[in-house]
Amino acid sequence: MNKLHKEKLNELWNQTQTGDWDGYESLPVYDRTFSLAEQVIEILEATWPSLDFGAEPDGSITIEWYSKKLGEWSLSLRHDDFISYAGILGKHKLRGACKTLESIPYISDMLYACAFKGAN
């Protein structure tokens, strides 16, 4: 994982280890969720070098990408390995879910095709 992504993820880790980290009774982000995020980021960053991260009140981690010109997408990762995604890339609207890390390269390729190749 590149240095910037590692620093961002570590900062998120430090901020979300206890419940109520957002002041609104949020759940803590579990170790398993961070482990999954590290694996997913390592897969994605070769194609998507400028990723942003965040946490959700249910304890999920979000990985996001945005381009003013091309669109945006977001992945949500839960501690039980459930991964959901949504994106608006050009004229394409994508969304779905899976429960396997092996699906991430496929999802990344599909998002890339819509963003950069105008796939239907």
Helix and strand topology:
Layout: H1 3-16, H2 31-44, E1 52-55, E2 61-67, E3 71-77, E4 83-89, E5 92-98, H3 104-117
Antiparallel strand pairs: 1-2, 2-3, 3-4, 4-5
Helix pairs in contact: 1-2
Broad structural category: alpha+beta
Gyration radius, to the nearest Å?
A: 14 Å
Overall 3D shape: globular
Unreliable runs: none
Strand order in the largest sheet: 1-2-3-4-5
Fraction of residues in H or I helices? 25-40%
Strands, count: 5
Order of helices and strands: HHEEEEEH
Largest sheet composition: 5 strands, antiparallel
How many discrete domains? 1
Figure out the total of helices: 3
Residue share in β-strands: 25-35%
Mean pLDDT: 91
How many angstroms separate the termini? 31 Å
Would you mind describing this structure in some detail?
- The chain is an alpha+beta fold.
- Helices cover 35% and strands 27% of the residues.
- It has one domain.
- It contains three helices and five strands, in the order H-H-E-E-E-E-E-H.
- Strand 1 and strand 2 form a beta hairpin.
- The radius of gyration is 14 Å and the shape is globular.
Keywords:
single chain, 120 residues, alpha+beta, 5-stranded antiparallel sheet, 5 strands, globular
Q: Could you write a compact summary of the structure shown?
A:
The chain has 120 residues and is α+β, with helices and mostly antiparallel strands. The chain is 35% helix and 27% strand.
